[in-house]
Every structure is written in structure tokens, then in C-alpha cells.
Design brief:
- 2 copies of one chain form a homodimer.
- With 322 residues, chain A is an alpha+beta fold.
- Chain A has 10 helices and 12 strands.
- Chain A has a 6-stranded mixed beta sheet.
- In chain A, helix 3 links the parallel strand 4 and strand 5.
- In chain A, helix 2 packs parallel to helix 3.
- The longest helix of chain A is centred in the N-terminal third of the chain and has 19 residues.
- At the A-B interface, helix 1, strand 2, strand 3, helix 2 and strand 4 of A face helix 1, strand 2, strand 3, helix 2 and strand 4 of B.
- Strand 2 of chain A pairs antiparallel with strand 3 of chain B, so a sheet runs across the interface.
- Chains A, B: Catalyzes the ATP-dependent phosphorylation of thiamine-monophosphate (TMP) to form thiamine-pyrophosphate (TPP), the active form of vitamin B1.
- Chains A, B: Pfam families: AIRS, AIRS_C.
- Chains A, B: One of its GO terms (molecular function) is ATP binding.
């Protein structure tokens, strides 16, 4: 048995590999088999994280294990899907138990939290990278897509924005901060919580949804394009954490919220009549703008003036992180 | 729009991205959506190919496009699954149209041949590697697994063995050969044909199956272990191509067939009563041995003598290719 086969067995022995309902056959054969209840469809999303591009190398493998799965599962939340399973394609230059063990621990912890079972994958030798493919269930016709936003809808997000971008100088060791500031920001970066329950609550209510991974402005652009509408964002309505405001100040906090990315918070459009019942039920929904006829994304200041051009310049840095 | 987003659009525009029956939502949203007929399960397999490990770099991108999908789809054949869709996670150091265009052409050609539609994926910057995840449909309970082989079954393969391993010195430029020898060997290496139709024909007949990727001996070991049986392979019964025999001679051809890997031919066990009707129907089935009570894989010479130890030494090189 080769050492890479040992890795496969190691992951196969993890608790999350046991799977649950819907996993007819897990790790160890040519394919895994998933079963779906009648009337449901399978939602699928794939994300790759490359060392030195999407995370620093070296980094804490336990935290990477959590984060690598969370960012993939977040796409299931954005579709309103029930999480089911995932595969892991791990490429690593060496077989290092001191790295693999904490990575698998972090992965398993997030898998249990999200309710997904490891059903397969591949383990190969090469420069460190991770490709995770996640699977969820959604009743036919009820998935939340990007294409249903309508003029008159409210534009909403499911939580505070900009925390992960605010954490980046801490992650990269460029700045330090008191624990009261650093810990919530770093927790958001390393251990984002996919908004799976919110996604389910929005089924049949939100007209469009996605998760914010590339930054609010860029991701709202995807909804605007797919729905052929214009999205207006009110800069003063962005929900910001106390830690982010204390760390970088109001102006930079809003830049981070608009362009920073890695939030993994849901952005969605909602007919106004749907808002009050959802908020009354306790869902963390922040109205940040509205949908109008037209195209593209427009950022408005507190006076309703268009300040979009002033913020666009911050987006160029995205290119380096793809 | 970043250049990596352009790549995504490029693949999304490919004919194979249109998909067919069962693809409810393809590229462009947070998730793809697959629909399954009632009573069917989804078969899933993931394969990663790393530059410099699984293929030489540089290599012909058109041929790599074909091969990268074929090796993944072969796992669907091994399960007796109907091909449906796939995702591509492409990591590349630079955006080079002269590489991407022929790669996508080769990929699309194999996708059309196999009947799978591209439904999603990810495109990232980093050292060249490809992770393909393939999806197929199979009626619940009818998938061919590795675990059902029974004493008394015949051990069979679906075609000639060792051609891809025989091609390796040609691929690496270590040797040359006349076109009559080189072309069939290289075709097998670069453009393996997943035995999808054979997989379907074996449903309800074969007791176990897998595709030969790591070499006949190693892969038969997986069946023996999963089924808790002993597999006996008769060295003289291995089906070998004229090109391979002419290129490396009888002894080395049998070594390639036993240990070489990359054949992507099905290996399976079959109750003896099932053999004649399948062969009469024209399926290319070669009996190479039998199943007995016990464990492990035993290689027999023409006199029925156990020659397993003599061949095992050739397997060590596998480690370098994982």
C-alpha cells in the first residue's frame, strides 16, 4: 500500500465519512452513490483553494480544514439546498501526518456542523491545493437562483459584511490587534458559517440569492446581470461589526464590506411583503438597497448620490486572488 | 471582468455545456442542479491530474483534454452508470488561449463521445492541475461495486491490457517506433475509451467490477479485498495487442498488462453461466482467471504454478505516479 493510499484510508476513517440519509455508497468504490427523495434535485458546487493564492503557505491546517469546506458549502446555502455530502481532491507535495491530522480534524468539524458526509475524492502528489465538491438536495423548482430579482424587490444581506477582508492584515501578519478585535475578525475569516438555515428559510420567498465570496459589489453585479435588473446599494445601510469599525475605521470598513470578499454571507432580493414575517421570526436580515428596472449596480451615499465610480477602483486587487 | 472569469465564460460557451436530459441548471449560478428519474441513484467520481506527475508538462493540450475526461468517466463505466454530467476545476499559472482552446476542444470531443455535459467548476491561478468530477445515473441497487465477487465466478477483462503502459516510453520521448506500432499505443494512452456500454451490459450479470487504472494486479487486489475472496490470474490468458507485443516482446508485454496501469478497461467477475450469452451478443470479454475462497491475488503460469512473487517487484514504481 502506497503512502498516498494510506491518506485515503485516513480520510475514509473520519466520522464524517460515515454519511447519513441519502448516501447509498460512500468512500472506497469506483464511485459514490447518492439517493434523492422523489421530487428533489441535486445541487452541486466546486471550489478550489491553491496554496499561496487562496491561503498563505504555511498556514494552520486545522483552520484551513474548516475554511476549505465552509466556502464550498456556502454555495449550497445560496441555493436553498439541504446539505448532503462532499468530495475532497487533495494534492500535496509530501505525506505529513502533522499536517494531515489537524487538516482532517478541521474538515470533520465543519462537516459535522454543516451536515455533510465525505463520500469520495482523490489524493495526489503535487503542489498543495484542495478542490472540494459539495452536494445538496432541493425540491424541484425551489432552488434560489440569481436570475429572479424583480424591480420593487428589496436588496438584503444575511449578516455583517467586511469582517473577512478586515481580518486579512491579521492573517498575513501585516498588522496586529487586541484580542477583542482580532478574534471575531479571524474567526469570520477562518471559520465562516455557511448560512444554510437562512437559505432554507428563503425558499419560496427570496426572488434571487447568492453567497458573497467576491465582494458585495461584484456579486450583486452577478444578480443584476442574471436577472436583467439594476441593483441600488445604500452605503450607509451596510451592516458592519464593532470589531471591524474599531480596527479600520468607518470609511475603510465600508470599502471592505463593498469590495473585500470572503464574507460567505447571503445576498438576496425579497418582495417587501416578505420582510416583516422573516424578521419577526428572528432571521438576521439587513435591507441594504433595492431593485429597479435597468442594469448594473449603483452605490448611493447618504444623500442618494451615485458614488459608484469612487469605489470601483478598489476592485482591481481581486485579480490576484482568483 | 477578470481574465479568469473569461476562461469560465469560454468553457461555458462550449457545446458540451448545453447538457441534456437530467441537467436542470448548468453553468453560471452558485450551484448546478441535476434531476434524477425516480428509482435512480447518482454515481459520483473525482480524479485529479497534476502536471509533471500524471502527465508531462508541456504536453499536447488537445490530447490532455480528451484524456482528463476519459479517465474520470471510466469510473462511471465501472459502476454500470449512464453518463450525465461533469465539473472541471482547472488550475493554471497563466491564461494562454493557445493552450486553453485546444484543451477545451479535446475535452468537448470526449464529452460528446461519452454523453456528459459540463455543469460547473472553478478556475484558479496556480500550478497546472485538473480535477474532474463526473456524474452518472444508475437504477437503485443495480450499480456494479467491487464487493460482490463469489468463489466460482470467472475473472474477466473487457479488452487488451498494457497498451497505455507500453506507450509510456513513446509519450516521454524515451523511445520511438514505426507508426504502425506507435499510433495504436499512443491512441490508447491519450484517448482511452471508457467502456460505458459494456458497463451497462454487465448490470445484473457481473458480481463485481472496476476499471483498471492502477494496473491489473493492484486493481484485482481491490476486488479481492472488498469481496473477501481470492482472485487467480492466468498469465497466459492476458489479452495483448499486436502493437504491444511487437514493441516490447512477450515478457515485457505481460508485465505491462499486469502492473502498468492506465488501461481504463473494465475488470469484473462473472458467474460462468453469464459468459456465453454476453460473448454471443458480441461483447469483448476475455476470461483471465477465476475467483476462489481465500484472499489476495495469485498469478499463475501456464503450468498453474504460483509466480506472484516474481512479478510483485514491478509494482514499486507506482508510488511515483500517485
Amino acid at each position: 500500500m502506497g503512502e498516498f493510499e494510506l491518506i485515503r484510508n485516513y480520510f475514509a476513517a473520519a466520522p464524517c465519512a460515515q454519511g447519513g440519509e441519502g448516501i447509498a455508497l460512500g468512500i472506497g468504490d469506483d464511485c459514490a452513490l447518492l439517493a434523492l427523495p422523489a421530487g428533489e434535485q441535486l445541487a452541486i458546487s466546486t471550489d478550489t483553494l491553491v496554496a499561496g493564492v487562496h491561503f498563505s503557505d504555511p498556514c494552520d491546517p486545522f483552520l484551513l480544514g474548516q475554511r476549505s469546506l465552509a466556502v464550498a458549502v456556502s454555495d449550497l446555502a445560496a441555493m436553498g439546498a439541504n446539505p448532503l455530502a462532499f468530495t475532497l481532491a487533495l494534492t500535496t507535495p509530501t505525506v505529513d501526518a502533522d499536517w494531515l491530522q489537524p487538516y482532517a480534524l478541521g474538515l470533520n468539524l465543519m462537516a459535522q456542523r454543516c451536515g455533510v458526509g465525505l463520500v469520495g475524492g482523490d489524493t495526489t502528489r503535487g503542489p498543495l491545493s484542495l478542490t472540494l465538491t459539495v452536494f445538496g438536495r432541493v425540491p424541484a423548482g425551489q432552488a434560489l437562483t440569481r436570475s429572479g430579482a424583480r424591480p420593487g424587490d428589496l436588496l438584503c444581506v444575511g449578516g455583517e459584511l467586511g469582517n473577512a477582508a478586515g481580518a486579512l492584515p491579521l492573517v498575513l501578519g501585516q498588522r496586529s490587534a487586541d484580542a477583542a478585535i482580532a478574534e471575531p475578525l479571524l474567526a469570520h475569516y477562518w471559520s465562516p458559517q455557511p448560512q444554510l438555515a437562512l437559505g432554507l428559510a428563503l425558499r419560496g420567498k427570496a426572488t434571487s440569492a447568492m453567497d458573497i465570496s467576491d465582494g458585495l459589489l461584484a456579486d450583486c453585479g452577478h444578480i443584476a446581470k442574471a436577472s436583467s435588473v439594476s441593483l441600488l446599494i445604500e452605503r450607509q445601510q451596510l451592516p458592519l461589526s464593532g470589531a471591524l469599525l474599531a480596527f479600520v475605521g468607518d470609511d475603510q470598513a465600508r470599502v471592505a464590506a463593498l469590495s473585500g470578499g470572503d464574507d460567505y454571507v447571503l445576498a438576496f432580493t425579497l418582495p417587501s411583503a416578505e420582510l416583516a414575517p422573516l424578521q419577526a421570526a428572528g432571521w438576521p436580515i439587513h435591507v441594504i438597497g433595492r431593485v429597479e428596472a435597468g442594469q448594473g449596480v449603483t452605490l448611493l451615499d447618504a444623500n442618494g448620490q451615485d458614488i459608484t465610480p469612487a469605489i470601483r477602483g478598489y476592485q482591481h486587487f481581486r485579480e490576484t486572488r482568483e
